[in-house]
C-alpha cells in the first residue's frame, strides 16, 4: 500500500476479500481460502448452485455470503462449508444480487439487487428486516457504516445514505451521475464514491455535501476504499489503474512541498488544497478548517445529465442493432472539452462513448472518438439551451464516415436521443 510493489497474485479470481486473520477469500469458479502472505491455497468451498459473482466475509470470519445468478444471497459456514441460509429472491428478470455487506456485529446482512431493491436480513433467522427501492436506475453497491446505524447504496442516479433500522433517507448524492462503488470512512462521518465520470469524490455522510472531487482518470471508476485510519483513499478505474490519494491536510502540504522546488501560490493552494490562502511556510500540522470550494460560474452546458429513451422515441433502427439495444437510461457528462456517455440497456448490458466537444455561442459540436469503431470521427452538432434543471438540444445534424454518419437511421437515432426530451441536470 505504501510503495505499490506487487506482493502476490491470485489467478482466476474475479472477486476477493479478507477473511479470518491471515487469509484472503477469492472467488473464481468456487470460493478459495488462501494464505495472504504466500498465496498458498488452504481450502476450497464447493460452488453454490448457479454462477457466483461476489462474496463478503463476516467480521469474525465465521460466515461467508456469496451471491450470483440465482437471485439469492447464500450464507455459508466458513469452517464446514454448510449452507446456513438462502436469502432474498429476484422481483423480476435481471434483478439478481449485485452486492452484499455484513453489519459490523455480523448479525445482519444488507443486499442490493440489480434493479435497486434493497434488503436487510437477520443472518441467524433469515428474517427480512427491511426492503425498499433504493434507486431509480440500476444499482451497483451497498456498504454499512462502522457503527451499523447507517447504510450507503450506489446506482445509476448517484449514491444515498439511509438510517438503520428505519430505512429513512438521510442524504442523496445525485449530482455525480452513475456511481459504481461507495464506502464509509472509519469514523462514519464521510463516504467516498467511484463515479462513471472518472472522478472519485468524498462527501459528508449525513448531509450529502461534497467535500472534495479527485479526478485523473479518463475512464470510469470501479472501486474505492479508505485506509483504516482514513488518511488515504485508493480508487481503481476501468483501465486497471489504482490511484492512492492523501486526504489529510498536513500530509497534502508535505507532499506538495516535497514535489515542488518553490513555494505554493495562493491560486495553487486553492486548486490543490482547497484553501483560499496558503498556510504559513513550514506548516504546523495543526488541523485547519477547509471551506467548501467555490461554485464555478456557468459559461456553457458543462455538467452531468440523465435521460431515458424508450422504443416509442425511436422511429428508426440503429444500424446492425436491435431496437432494445438503442434504448435505456443514458448518463451524459460535459467537462473541460471532453464528453462521455454511458448507456444502461433494458437487458442490463451497458455501452459507453466519449470524445471531444466545442461550444460556440448557443451551438455545440460533439466528435465521437471512443465507442463504435465504425463511427469514429462522427460529429453531432446542435443548438443548446439551459433551463433551471434541464439541458435541451435542437437542430441536430450528424456527419461522419460512410456507413455511420451518412446513415439516415443513425441520424434519426441521434435526433431522438438528444431531442426526445430534455436532459435532467444532476450537476
Key terms:
single chain; 427 residues; mainly beta; 8-stranded antiparallel β-barrel; 4-stranded antiparallel β-sheet; 3 helices; 31 strands; globular
Explain what the structure shows:
By secondary structure, the chain is mainly β. Helices cover 7% and strands 44% of the residues. The protein has 3 helices and 31 strands. It has helices at 249-258, 266-273, 408-419, and strands spanning 15-18, 23-27, 31-35, 41-45, 52-57, 63-68, 73-77, 83-87, 97-102, 108-113, 117-122, 128-133, 139-144, 150-155, 158-163, 169-173, 179-184, 190-195, 200-204, 210-214, 221-226, 232-237, 242-246, 303-309, 328-335, 338-344, 350-360, 363-370, 379-386, 390-399, 423-425. The chain has an 8-stranded antiparallel barrel. Strands 1-2-3-4 form a 4-stranded antiparallel sheet, with no helix packed on it. A hairpin with a 4-residue loop joins strand 22 (232-237) and strand 23 (242-246). The longest helix has 12 residues, at 408-419. Residues 282-298 have low confidence and may be disordered.
Concise account of the structure shown:
This protein has 427 residues and is mainly beta. It is built from three helices and 31 strands. An eight-stranded antiparallel β-barrel has the order 24-25-26-27-28-29-30-31. A four-stranded antiparallel β-sheet has the order 1-2-3-4, with no helix packed on it.
Amino acid at each position: 500500500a505504501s510503495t505499490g510493489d506487487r506482493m502476490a497474485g491470485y489467478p482466476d479470481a474475479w472477486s476477493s476479500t479478507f477473511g479470518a486473520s491471515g487469509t484472503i477469500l477469492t472467488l473464481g469458479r468456487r470460493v478459495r481460502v488462501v494464505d495472504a502472505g504466500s498465496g498458498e491455497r488452504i481450502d476450497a468451498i464447493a460452488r453454490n448452485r448457479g454462477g457466483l459473482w461476489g462474496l463478503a466475509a463476516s467480521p469474525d470470519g465465521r460466515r461467508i455470503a456469496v451471491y450470483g445468478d440465482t437471485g439469492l444471497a447464500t450464507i455459508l459456514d466458513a469452517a464446514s462449508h454448510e449452507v446456513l441460509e438462502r436469502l432474498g429472491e429476484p422481483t423480476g428478470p435481471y434483478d439478481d444480487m449485485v452486492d452484499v455487506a455484513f453489519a459490523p456485529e455480523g448479525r445482519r446482512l444488507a443486499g442490493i439487487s440489480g434493479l435497486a431493491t434493497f434488503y436487510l436480513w437477520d443472518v441467524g433467522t433469515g428474517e427480512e428486516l427491511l426492503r425498499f427501492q433504493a434507486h431509480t436506475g440500476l444499482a451497483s453497491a451497498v456498504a454499512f457504516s462502522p457503527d451499523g446505524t447507517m447504510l450507503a447504496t450506489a446506482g445509476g442516479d448517484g449514491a444515498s445514505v439511509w438510517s438503520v433500522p428505519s430505512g429513512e433517507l438521510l442524504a442523496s448524492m445525485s449530482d455525480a451521475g452513475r456511481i459504481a462503488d461507495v464506502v464509509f470512512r472509519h469514523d462514519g462521518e464521510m463516504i467516498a464514491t467511484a463515479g462513471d465520470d472518472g472522478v472519485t469524490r468524498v462527501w459528508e455522510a449525513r448531509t450529502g455535501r461534497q467535500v472534495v472531487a479527485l479526478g485523473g482518470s479518463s475512464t470510469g471508476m470501479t472501486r474505492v476504499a479508505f485506509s483504516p485510519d482514513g488518511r488515504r483513499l485508493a480508487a481503481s478505474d476501468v483501465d486497471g489503474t489504482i490511484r492512492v490519494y492523501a486526504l489529510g491536510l498536513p500530509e497534502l502540504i508535505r507532499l506538495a512541498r516535497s514535489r515542488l522546488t518553490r513555494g505554493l501560490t495562493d491560486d495553487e493552494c486553492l486548486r490543490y488544497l482547497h484553501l483560499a490562502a496558503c498556510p504559513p511556510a513550514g506548516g504546523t500540522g495543526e488541523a485547519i478548517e477547509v471551506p467548501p470550494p467555490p461554485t464555478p460560474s456557468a459559461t456553457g452546458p458543462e455538467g452531468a445529465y440523465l435521460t431515458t429513451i424508450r422504443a416509442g422515441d425511436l422511429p428508426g433502427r440503429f444500424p446492425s442493432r436491435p431496437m432494445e439495444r438503442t434504448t435505456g437510461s443514458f448518463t451524459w457528462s460535459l467537462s473541460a472539452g471532453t464528453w462521455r456517455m454511458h448507456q444502461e440497456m433494458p437487458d442490463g448490458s451497458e455501452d459507453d462513448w466519449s470524445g471531444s466537444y466545442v461550444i460556440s455561442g448557443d451551438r455545440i459540436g460533439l466528435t465521437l472518438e471512443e465507442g463504435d469503431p465504425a463511427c469514429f470521427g462522427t460529429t453531432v452538432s446542435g443548438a443548446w439551451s439551459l433551463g433551471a434543471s434541464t439541458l435541451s438540444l435542437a437542430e441536430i445534424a450528424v456527419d461522419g464516415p460512410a456507413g455511420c454518419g451518412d446513415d439516415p437511421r443513425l441520424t434519426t437515432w441521434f435526433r431522438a436521443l438528444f431531442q426526445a426530451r430534455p436532459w435532467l441536470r444532476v450537476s
